[in-house]
């Protein structure tokens, strides 16, 4: 299946080949289910950076199972306002 | 006393009396300081039904026990009075250097009553106070006033003053200190103006005593170290891009109010984002006293028509004057921010009132003749022109000066004012952030995010991300964040530091770090329970001021746009804010009646039986 990924701000530079907007091909043959946390492992975001993840615009926890065509948005934890 | 100065300064402008009195030790401990001490005196001494711009109203400046101690962000003071915008209490908070200087001059608080016959200013010089003539300052901008006062008092003094907007009693005039820091909201500047009080000038060289300096210093080192580590985890945070860095977050989550709150996404968000501000206009950061963050922005704009130098804009200004008015010209927003600082206006209400006027114009409820010009969405020149006109109440500015509720109501469409208790909202859309709606509706000052900010858990993921679109289970964390804000505001700290660094990491946000600081500084031996109860006492004391002024559930409201019209775009598409359901849960969590009135039992538990009228 294919997941659409967008990275923002300080996370931007950790995409494959420096890309911040890309599609991720994930092997889900034989009906294997893929959790968000396993997809995040495929990205090179350092453990030391705190970030938030949205799936189709909603906060979701790491065990959430992904579907073909899901949009993943990853951005650093920012506060203030 | 330690940390507290133990003294309150009282000035009656009618009688021209200056009296020093002691701050009762038990009151200090029970109400902490700042916002707590302020509401104590408001309830004690002010008729909640008084006219806000009459001589009868009082205005209180109050610092907290941690103000000026060197505790990180212990730089703040609170301005409390009865608001001309809302008719409720104000909690207008500001940092910079004025609050610490005021405290070093010898006082925890200042209570101003009466009305001067002609313009005056106060010169508080190390325990000696004079009421001085201010005829020569009337009409001057906040910057010009500050420069003139420093040259006629002491170059090292600090100034809090009003500009033309306060003099003209614009219902959302601010009090500006250190030129560009604002006790911004609810029209506190108009109350100063109504009293003919142009400025308060302070010079203080006194020490602020710490009960246990070794413990205080050791804890300070520990907290600052933890803060520096946490900064590494969140690169490009507040220090780098200021508060405007969250334009990214709010637009992604579909809660960046756009076109007078018709929707929560703005296609040109990158034009007004904090990263753009940093790249194009930032000169340097500016930090308040003892602040390791430095979210303040010194900026400079060279673009023709918007040239200027000053401070800002912050996120709230950018939402209100930017996406909300469909203006993507960051130079114009920055220039309008400079004007607000110099003329003494609240940027949030200014921008939000203009957005409301734009919608009224689009729908034909206002015409070109009344406005004096065409007023289309996205018109940056209108932003500049009408900001000036509002401060001076010229032409259509005289109607904008009343805020969006009275403007929309005057043409028969109050539902188009995006307000709670007649005060304009900050920049987080409740259809996509349910608890924000609850916080706006129940904030004692009306539309505000700073008196308990669910944006932390709904939008920023602090201490943990909670689905912003779910309304169930939001009442308790909202109450906890409100209680925490009361403690932060009373202690004299800044929300931006204290929520992340001085509270525990649960949704109860217990004020564990503030407890350590308060006990080391004051020697008062608060238990965690006592401190949390003090926060609840402050929230309930404020609620009692509102109840006694005639407020109840009816005023804990949001405009129908947010509760009945589904969000048209973004992640919140199709959603409305479930305020009434959350209010039921919230009143229960507070032990208030279903009409939003604190019960006698609850008030007695908090030693507030005396506030029942």
* Count of DSSP H/I helices of chain A: 1
Overall 3D form of chain B: globular
Task: Report the mean per-residue pLDDT of chain B as an integer.
Answer: 97
Tell me the structural class of chain B.
alpha+beta
What fraction of residues of chain A sit in β-strands? 25-35%
In N-to-C order, the SSE pattern of chain A is EEHEEE
Q: Kindly state the mean pLDDT of chain A as a whole number?
A: 88
Q: Which blocks of ≥5 consecutive residues of chain A have pLDDT under 50? A: none
* Rounded Rg of chain A: 13 Å
Bin the helical content of chain B: 40-55%
Q: Main β-sheet of chain A: number of strands, strand sense, barrel status?
A: 5 strands, mixed
Say how many strands of chain A there are: 5
Overall shape of chain A: globular
Q: How many distinct helices of chain B?
A: 26
- What is the straight-line distance between the termini of chain A? 38 Å
Helix content of chain A: under 10%
Q: Which stretches of chain B are low in confidence, meaning pLDDT under 50 for 5 or more residues running?
A: none
Q: Name the structural class of chain A.
A: mainly beta
Q: End-to-end span of chain B in angstroms?
A: 33 Å
Name the beta content range of chain B: 5-15%
| Number of E strands of chain B | 17
């Amino acid at each position: 299946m294919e997941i659409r990924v967008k990275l923002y701000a300080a996370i931007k530079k950790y995409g494959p080949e420096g890309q911040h907007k890309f599609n991720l091909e994930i092997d889900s043959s034989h009906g294997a289910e893929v959790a968000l946390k396993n997809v995040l492992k495929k990205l090179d975001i350092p453990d030391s950076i705190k970030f938030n993840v949205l799936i189709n615009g909603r906060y979701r926890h790491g065990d959430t199972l992904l579907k073909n065509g899901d949009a993943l948005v990853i951005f650093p934890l920012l506060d203030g306002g | 006393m330690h940390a507290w100065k133990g003294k309150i300064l009282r000035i009656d402008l009618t009688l021209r009396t200056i009296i020093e009195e002691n701050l009762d030790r038990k009151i200090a401990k029970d109400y902490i300081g700042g916002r707590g001490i302020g509401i104590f005196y408001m309830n004690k001494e002010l008729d909640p039904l008084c006219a806000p711009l009459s001589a009868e109203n009082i205005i209180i400046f109050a610092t907290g026990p941690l103000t000026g101690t060197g505790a990180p962000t212990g730089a703040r003071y609170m301005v409390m009075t009865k608001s001309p915008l809302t008719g409720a209490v104000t909690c207008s908070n500001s940092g910079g250097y004025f609050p610490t200087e005021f405290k070093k001059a010898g006082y925890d608080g200042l209570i101003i009553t009466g009305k001067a016959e002609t313009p005056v200013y106060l010169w508080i010089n190390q325990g000696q106070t004079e009421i001085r003539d201010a005829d020569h300052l009337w009409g001057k901008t906040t910057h010009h006033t500050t420069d003139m006062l420093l040259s006629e008092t002491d170059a090292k003094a600090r100034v809090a003053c009003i500009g033309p907007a306060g003099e003209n009693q614009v219902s959302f005039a601010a009090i500006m200190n250190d030129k560009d820091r604002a006790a911004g909201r609810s029209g506190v500047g108009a109350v100063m103006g109504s009293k003919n009080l142009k400025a308060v000038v302070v010079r203080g060289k006194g020490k602020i005593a710490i009960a246990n300096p070794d413990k205080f210093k050791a804890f300070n080192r520990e907290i600052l170290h933890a803060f520096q580590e946490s900064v590494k985890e969140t690169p490009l945070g507040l220090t780098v891009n200021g508060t405007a860095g969250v334009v990214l977050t709010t637009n992604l989550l579909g809660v960046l109010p756009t076109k007078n709150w018709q929707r929560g996404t703005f296609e040109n968000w990158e034009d007004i984002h904090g990263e753009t501000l940093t790249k194009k206009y930032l000169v340097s950061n500016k930090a308040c006293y003892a602040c390791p963050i430095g979210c303040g922005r010194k900026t400079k704009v060279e673009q023709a028509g918007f040239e200027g130098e000053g401070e800002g804009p912050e996120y709230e200004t950018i939402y209100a004057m930017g996406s909300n008015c469909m203006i993507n010209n960051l130079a114009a927003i920055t220039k309008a921010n400079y004007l607000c600082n110099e003329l003494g206006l609240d940027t949030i209400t200014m921008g939000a009132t203009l957005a409301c006027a734009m919608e009224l114009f689009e729908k034909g409820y206002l015409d070109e003749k009344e406005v004096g010009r065409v007023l289309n969405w996205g018109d940056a020149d209108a932003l500049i022109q009408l900001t000036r006109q509002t401060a001076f109440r010229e032409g259509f500015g005289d109607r904008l000066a009343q805020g969006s509720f009275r403007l929309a109501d005057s043409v028969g469409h109050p539902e188009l004012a995006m307000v709670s208790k007649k005060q304009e909202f900050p920049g987080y859309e409740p259809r996509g952030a349910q608890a924000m709606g609850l916080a706006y509706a129940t904030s004692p000052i009306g539309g505000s995010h700073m008196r308990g900010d669910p944006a932390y858990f709904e939008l920023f993921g602090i201490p943990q991300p909670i689905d912003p679109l779910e309304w169930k289970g939001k009442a308790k964390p909202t109450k906890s964040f409100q209680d925490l804000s009361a403690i932060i505001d009373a202690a004299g700290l800044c929300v931006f530091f204290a929520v992340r660094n001085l509270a525990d990491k649960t949704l109860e946000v217990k004020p564990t770090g503030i407890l350590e600081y308060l006990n080391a500084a004051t020697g008062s031996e608060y238990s965690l329970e006592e401190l949390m109860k003090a926060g609840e006492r402050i929230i309930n004391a404020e609620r009692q001021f509102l109840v006694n002024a005639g407020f109840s559930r009816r005023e804990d409201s949001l405009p129908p746009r947010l509760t009945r019209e589904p969000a048209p775009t973004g992640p919140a598409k199709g959603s409305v804010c479930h305020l009434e359901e959350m209010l039921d849960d919230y009143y229960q969590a507070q032990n208030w009646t279903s009409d939003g009135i604190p019960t006698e039992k609850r008030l007695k538990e908090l030693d507030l039986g005396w506030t029942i009228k």
